[in-house]
């Protein structure tokens, strides 16, 4: 058991160093005059943190799948896609929020997305004729957005 943990620790350390290196290398790429400059709102270099964002984004989606499995084990009908989407939306909002934005502004964005995810999930659940667990389904989407997506990157 200890041998596996040591091997896993070394692999994770190498992966972290590779992620930091890739982030540094991507930050040196000049994208001036390309489609990517338009896509990244006029920036001339690829912003720092994109490889880290991609790695954590995958983990957020995997965590959302696990959250859905936990709800389904307790007999709560939850949409896998909606919980994954709300968790991904919450994480993306936290990543894209400018560091100069006030806490009130970021909170307003997050709460707006949270309310939209809750209402949309409840309406989608109720539209299938199953209104008895619509509130639990909406709560699952909110939990996914808060717990998995609300990490400040």
Q: How does this structure look, described?
A:
By secondary structure, this protein is an all-alpha fold. It has two domains: 1-47, no CATH class; 49-153, no CATH class. 73% of the residues lie in helices and 0% in strands. It contains six helices and no strands. Helix 3 packs antiparallel against helix 4. The longest helix has 25 residues, at 2-26. It starts with a helix and ends in a 5-residue tail after the last helix. The model has no long low-confidence stretch (mean pLDDT 83).
Mean pLDDT across residues: 83
Q: Structural class, from secondary structure content?
A: mainly alpha
Strand content: under 5%
Helix content: over 70%
H/E topology pattern? HHHHHH
N- to C-terminal separation? Answer: 32 Å
Number of domains: 2
Low-confidence stretches: none
- C-alpha Rg, in Å? 19 Å
| Biggest pleated-sheet summary | none
Number of helices: 6
């Amino acid at each position: 058991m200890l041998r596996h943990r040591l091997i896993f620790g070394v692999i994770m350390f190498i992966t972290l160093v590779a992620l930091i290196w890739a982030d540094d290398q991507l930050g040196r790429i000049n994208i001036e005059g390309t489609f990517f400059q338009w896509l990244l709102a006029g920036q001339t270099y690829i912003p720092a943190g994109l490889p880290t964002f991609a790695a954590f984004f995958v983990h957020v989606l995997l965590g959302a799948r696990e959250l859905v499995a936990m709800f389904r084990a307790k007999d709560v009908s939850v949409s896998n896609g909606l919980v994954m989407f709300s968790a991904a939306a919450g994480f993306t909002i936290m990543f894209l929020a400018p560091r100069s934005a006030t806490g009130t502004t970021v909170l307003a964005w997050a709460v707006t997305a949270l309310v939209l995810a809750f209402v949309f999930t409840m309406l989608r659940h109720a539209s299938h004729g199953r209104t008895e667990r619509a509130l639990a389904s909406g709560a699952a989407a909110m939990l996914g957005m808060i717990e998995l997506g609300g990490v400040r990157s």
